[in-house]
């Protein structure tokens, strides 16, 4: 028997629906008042840098960081809960990127970013296999079927007596 997983952390689903940003400040303050001020903060330094990148001062208000972190945590919890529902319907044991992509199917900007990150991950994996320390045979294949070849380093060639050139 599966237990129903709900998002009880976020009291308001403010980002869903047609009027998603109409009462943004009121809801953000309501969330801020309901959260514990002494809980562990995970994204403080990253949010400080992000706020500075978007035009805030170099040392933003602590309440601003806490409020944005609460909103971010609320969004991530709801996203993972939606993806977990998809996982349960599909019958998988683990949450996958495909489940998150299905949960983001109505948001084309975020879905496009997931596609970009997935492609970048594939390219990094190909580059690691191509230039890695492990022996990769010429013409070996990766998951997607494309061939890779190991590039030999001309400085590592050995002379007849075994010393490096």
Automatic annotation (TrEMBL):
Give the Basic and acidic residues compositional bias ranges.
Answer: 137-147
Output the GO biological process annotations, alphabetical, semicolon-separated: RNA polymerase II preinitiation complex assembly
What's one Pfam family the UniProt record gives for this protein? TFIID-18kDa
Low complexity bias locations: 151-165
For this UniProt record, the keywords arranged alphabetically read as follows:
Nucleus, Transcription, Transcription regulation
What the entry lists under SUPFAM superfamilies is as follows: Histone-fold
Principal location listed in the UniProt entry: nucleus
Superkingdom in the source lineage: Eukaryota
Family designation: Belongs to the TAF13 family.
This protein is called Transcription initiation factor TFIID subunit 13
Name the species this protein comes from: Dekkera bruxellensis
